[in-house]
Amino acid sequence: METPLPFGWKPLHLDRYDDTTDPDEHIDLYVTQVNLYTNDDAILLRVFWTSLTGAALAWYTQLPAGSIDNFDTLVRRFTAQYATSRPHHVTSAALASLRQSNDEPLRTFMERFASISVKIQNLNLEVRGKTQAKPYHGHKDKMKVTNDIQFKKAARANKGGRYDFYTPLSAPRVHILEEASNNNLLTLPPPGHSPNNADRSKHCRYHRNHGHTTEECRTLRDRIEELVQAGHLGQYVQR
Ligand SMILES: [Zn+2]
């Protein structure tokens, strides 16, 4: 017999999981929401599908009937299925898309590269500590080789913006710029010189010159992405 929903039950207030974000975080949010009504394992299990959408919902509906008999099993299957959407994978992607910008000295770029690599190694250690999956031997060397390849790739493609992927933001860049400079996260370069043929109708608040708008500014876009990847400006990251 199906467990009835608790009295006063309302649809959940959370973003439906579509396989692109951190599965652990989704489980946390989901459990927190359901626990407002009940701690009943049967309810957690029964209602879970309502928190899914797209590919994740399709994955759920094809689970063999009777293969999942409690919420813990479901959580294990779900987090295993979407392990590649965990943040450390995203960070590896960030490393692969790192670019040296035209005006950036090689030394600065290498430092930036190294700091992200270290972050990824720490994350890998953390994950390893949790799962105890494989012995650690040889991992460091492998990481180094991968880094060298990534570095050469990144150094070659030093045109345009630094990143292949920019974190979607929930506010205009001009607003984020203001916030970041008020909090000393970001310092403005000295006022820039506008080229003679610059479009005077466009003004950049970062470079403080004409020719492009703040939203179009590639340098600012890179600076903001850097801050986001360093863990700042979380309130402007679209979820
Ligand atoms: Zn600009």
Mean pLDDT: 79
Q: What is the radius of gyration? A: 23 Å
Helical/strand content category: mainly alpha
Per DSSP, what share of the residues sits in E-state strands of 2 or more residues? under 5%
Q: How are the strands ordered across the major sheet?
A: 1-2
| Largest β-sheet summary | 2 strands, antiparallel
Secondary-structure blueprint:
Layout: H1 23-34, H2 41-47, H3 54-61, H4 71-81, H5 87-96, H6 106-131, H7 139-156, H8 173-182, E1 203-204, E2 209-210, H9 218-229
Antiparallel strand pairs: 1-2
Bound molecules: zinc ion.
Features:
239 residues; two-stranded antiparallel ribbon; binds zinc ion; 3 domains; 9 helices; mainly alpha; 48% helix; elongated
Describe this structure in words.
By secondary structure, this protein is mainly α. The chain folds into 3 domains: 23-85, no CATH class; 87-156; 173-236, no CATH class. Helices cover 48% and strands 2% of the residues. It is built from 9 helices and 2 strands; from the N terminus they run H-H-H-H-H-H-H-H-E-E-H. It has helices at residues 23-34, 41-47, 54-61, 71-81, 87-96, 106-131, 139-156, 173-182, 218-229, and strands at 203-204, 209-210. A hairpin with a 4-residue loop joins strand 1 (203-204) and strand 2. Helix 5 runs antiparallel to helix 6 (106-131). The chain binds zinc ion.
